[in-house]
Write a structure and sequence with these properties.
Blueprint lengths: L20 H8 L3 E5 L2 E4 L1 H20 L3 E2 L5 E3 H7 L1 H5 L4 E4 L5 E4 L4 H11 L8 E10 L14 E11 L2 H21 L5 E4 L9 E8 L5 E5 L6 E3 L22 E4 L6 H8 L7 E8 L2 E8 L6 H7 L5 E3 L2 H8 L15 E5 L8 E4 L5 E6 L9 E3 L18 E15 L1 H5 L3 E3 L5 E3 L1 E8 H11 L1 E2 L2 E2 L10 E5 L4 H16 L4 E3 L6 H11 L3 E5 L1 H5 L2 E6 L5 E5 L3 H11 L1
Parallel strand pairs: 3-7, 15-17, 17-20, 27-28, 27-29
Antiparallel strand pairs: 1-2, 4-6, 5-6, 7-8, 8-24, 9-10, 10-21, 11-12, 11-21, 13-19, 14-15, 14-16, 18-19, 21-24, 22-23, 25-26, 29-30, 30-31
């Protein structure tokens, strides 16, 4: 392909709206352009990368026995009502009424649709096991789209679904998909870490996320280098503290103290000269329409996924300032567990048996000293509610933990019978028993893979594509208007195409410096530099984009030499 005839608009400047390095470079290198918030156009360069990702996904899914189909993006809302997920996804769901007044959604995922299909097409154990997959555009009305295609409102996913007779069959399907994912990410040049994960609104009891460590990752993962423990922040288990030792020291009396306009943990701890761990942080939530006080230590943060899980999957939402004052009697920043009425108290296990805490007094500019659990307040529910920290020990081996940010690019679930029971997808087994199909679900963020690849494969000059995803394998850079130089460049370009390579010829009438900068920015693995000095010696320079290593090939054998270099990448 000739650059002069290609829509490949590179940019020197950093786009104002871009935060993540992948977002910046995907725009600067001419892969994408923003249409509106969270919605992007893929330009020819970006589409070639996307198609390569999809090809790898298809090859590995087919290799594991998957069958591709295509499910509709428009889905009747009644299916989501039957599964119970209409409320769970809430405003993230893009909904519309058709001309007949029927409510529809633009599919954010396809569990309901695929289950409906199998319900009507599969009736016997002889038709199982079955793995079906698709590569499809999904839609979610994200409250805050960010980081380009990492969190967008329209995106492409590969989702697969397994259907089995029993748990043993599900385990086998799950294992096959798990291994397929590892191979997909390896072939895409990604260092993916599988971690235990929360199942969330998808349901089921077992799931793993595939994470790409990245500075701009939205998620956090917890790793132990000693024993290999790897888990998402929402699933990381915090060990319960040891039971406090009993002493004969008399308890200190509860005492009010003035804390004028001091609301945050840091402000109160500094003023009272105590550690943040000696404070009880009291957060007021609305849970299924009712108020609740959630307690954690001052140096800890509430994990809302854990909170919801402790409450059986209930929807949890932080109360606003007006609701807090109505429920506690005091303003924001001064809530505490002592004296609360008609509020359920849900406490993190780290507070159990603790004494001499500081907490809000549910009164403006006032805190309480010497708050004791058991004497001054009692929790209605104890649970692991907080984010794990690097000061916590590994729950498996007791060693040091490492917490890092990451991008989720894949998620696999053992769904069990959640959807088959809700939508009545059943089969007859060998004994003639009518049983619900056992399901698994396996998703890959196809467009996210591109961003993740850029996050892991770039330098100060631009993208460094792995050979498997690069839109072209070679870029030919003629440096100057010399007719002989142009002719040789054309010969090399045609020769490389004839041996089956994907080649970009930079035939633009631009300075050598501009061509070099653009070539580094777009990140094609091999750069073929054709200059006058080299031609005088019948030599052509080759630069490896990743390492910067340069070599010289004879003009007569340049195509064969390039083929050999590509094999070594």
């Amino acid at each position: 392909m000739r650059w002069s005839q290609t829509l490949l608009p590179t940019l020197k400047e950093i786009p104002a709206e871009a935060e993540a390095i992948s977002h910046i470079l995907m725009i600067r290198a001419g892969l994408i352009r923003k249409l509106t918030s969270g919605v992007y156009t893929y330009l020819p360069f970006g589409l070639k990368v996307l198609e390569k990702v999809e090809a790898i996904v298809r090859e590995e899914m087919d290799r594991k026995g998957g069958q591709e189909l295509l499910l509709p993006a428009i889905q009747p809302a009644e299916l989501w009502e039957k599964s119970g997920r209409m409320k769970a996804l809430g405003r993230d769901m893009i909904q519309f009424e058709d001309r007949h007044g029927k409510l529809n959604v633009l599919g954010p995922t396809h569990e309901e649709v695929i289950t409906f299909l199998v319900k009507n097409e599969v009736s016997s154990y002889r038709q199982l096991p079955l793995i079906l997959y698709q590569i499809q555009t999904k839609f979610r009305d994200e409250a805050r789209p960010r980081f380009g295609v990492i969190r967008s409102r329209e995106f492409i996913m590969k989702d697969a679904y397994s259907f089995d007779r029993d748990q043993a069959g599900l385990n086998e399907s799950y294992s096959r998909m798990y291994e397929a994912y590892r191979e997909i990410f390896r072939r895409c040049g990604l260092r993916a870490i599988p971690v235990e994960a929360d199942t969330g609104v998808m349901g089921g009891d077992v799931s793993h996320e595939f994470m790409i460590p990245a500075v701009n990752g939205e998620d956090r993962i917890v790793l132990c280098e000693q024993c290999g423990y790897s888990v998402s922040m929402d699933k990381a288990e915090c060990l319960s503290p040891a039971e406090p030792e009993t002493t004969d020291v008399p308890e200190k009396p509860l005492q009010e103290t003035a804390t004028p306009n001091l609301r945050s943990v840091a402000e109160v701890a500094g003023f009272l000269k105590v550690s943040p761990s000696e404070l009880i942080k009291t957060l007021i939530y609305v849970i299924e329409g009712k108020g609740a006080a959630v307690l954690v230590r001052g140096d800890h943060e509430v994990n809302e996924t854990k909170l919801s899980r402790a409450l059986g999957g209930a929807e949890v939402k932080m109360a606003d300032a007006q609701t807090i004052e109505k429920l506690t009697g005091g303003p924001v920043g001064f809530s505490g567990p002592v004296g609360l009425k008609n509020l359920k108290i849900i406490a993190d296990v780290s507070l159990k048996g603790g004494s001499d805490f500081v907490s809000g007094a549910n009164k403006a500019d006032t805190h309480l000293l010497n708050v004791n659990e058991g004497r001054d307040f009692k929790a209605d529910l104890w649970a692991d509610l907080r984010d794990i920290t690097e000061t916590d020990a590994c729950p498996r081996c007791g060693k040091v933990l490492n917490i890092t940010t990451a991008i989720e690019i894949g998620h696999v679930f053992k769904l069990g019978t959640k959807y088959s029971e809700a939508l009545d997808a059943r089969f007859l087994n060998e004994k003639g028993e009518n049983l619900p199909v056992i399901m698994g679900c396996y998703g890959i963020g196809v467009t996210r893979i591109i961003a993740a690849c850029v996050e892991q494969n770039h330098d100060n000059s631009g993208i460094v594509w792995p050979l498997s995803l690069s839109p072209f394998q070679v870029v030919v850079l003629p440096l100057g208007p010399n007719p002989e130089l142009i002719q040789v460049s054309e010969e090399v370009y045609e020769g490389l195409k004839n041996v089956g390579l994907e080649v970009l010829l930079d035939d633009r009438d631009l300075r050598a410096g501009v061509k070099f900068k653009d070539a580094d920015l777009i990140g094609i693995p091999l750069q073929v530099v054709i200059g006058e000095k080299g031609l005088a010696r019948s030599e052509i320079e080759i630069k490896v984009r990743k390492s910067g290593a340069k070599s010289v090939l004879p003009r007569a054998g340049v195509c064969e030499g390039i083929l050999q270099l590509l094999k070594e990448l």
